[in-house]
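Hi everyone,

Forwarding the result from last night's run.
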Amino acid sequence: MTTNIFYYHSPLGPIMMASDGEALSGLWFEGQKYFADGIEGEYTEKSLPIFDEVIRWLDIYFKGHEPGFTPLILMKTTSFRKAVWEVMLTIPYGKTMTYGEIADVIAKKRNISKMSSQAVGGAVSHNPISLIIPCHRVVGADGSLTGYAGGIDKKRQLLELEKAK
């Protein structure tokens, strides 16, 4: 299967998008950790309707506004990572959530007493759809800006853009 890619030029640098032709499967800042993770085999750079929708989302986002919609996304991953990414999708624009809070949500959903914050951190760091699945909104227990595949400087800029509390 050929993956389609397209580039977006953001105020924070180039962003590469990937799609199976229908849904968004990747969105990475160029050079970030795990860049293009999940793209296997050949890829073609071309415009697609899903990329047009993601560009519209990114344009609204980088103007400092909540886009108000989520483009169709494809999460090809383990059930655990998918569960973590689904929780991240619920973090409101301009808000943050800790790794521990996400772990608590997952534990409750799985009907277990405790979930490891470190395991959640691993899932957060492997999020292939940056910004839309807002891993930049996940912070340390004390509110510190820990870990971000795109770099702490970008995380800080994104949270400032959102006026995060």
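Strands lie at 3-10, 13-19, 24-29, 43-45, 97-98, 138-139.

Cheers,
N.
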